[in-house]
Structures are given as C-alpha cells and as structure tokens.
Design brief:
The protein is mainly beta. The protein has one domain: Arylsulfatase, C-terminal domain, CATH 3.30.1120. It is built from no helices and 7 strands. The strands form 2 sheets. Strands 1, 2, 3, 4 and 7 form a 5-stranded antiparallel beta sheet that branches. It has a two-stranded antiparallel ribbon with strand order 5-6.
Length: 81
C-alpha cells in the first residue's frame, strides 16, 4: 500500500522560535490546511494540526485542535455528489 504525501504550500514564519513554517499537505486525496512544522533545537521536526485558543469563564487560556484542519478538496473547489 502506497501513501502519497505532498506539500502543497509552505509559508515561512519569522521570529517564532521552534515554529519555522506553516504547511498545507496532501495525503492521498485529502488536503490538510495550515499545519505547523515544529522543530525544537537538537530534535527532529514534526507537524502539528492547527490549534484554536479561547478563554474559560475564569480567564484561563485553553487550546484545542481546530476542526477545520482537513478538507477533501482544494480551496474554493466543490466536489460533485
């Protein structure tokens, strides 16, 4: 079984330390948008899904993976049913 992985778009991010870039990647026919490349000093790079943040009622900041991180098509493209 072959799995095709392709970087569709890469956007460098300046001045963010261990976060050098944001990428859109395609795995087979699915497009994953705005994933982050993370590389800490002395370690191998890895990717992280988009993250949404918000505050709880007591003012604590919380983070969670965004539900908008994957798409079966390209921006603006509609799939026929």
């Amino acid at each position: 079984m072959n799995i095709d992985i392709k970087i569709e778009k890469m956007k460098p991010i300046k001045g963010r330390g261990s976060l050098p870039a944001s990428v859109d990647l395609r795995i087979s026919k699915t497009l994953f948008r705005s994933w982050w490349i993370i590389q800490q000093e002395g370690k191998r790079p890895w990717v992280s899904p988009p993250v949404e943040s918000g505050e709880t009622s007591d003012g604590e900041r919380r983070y969670k993976a965004s539900r908008r991180c994957g798409s079966s098509g390209v921006a603006g493209e509609r799939r026929a049913s």
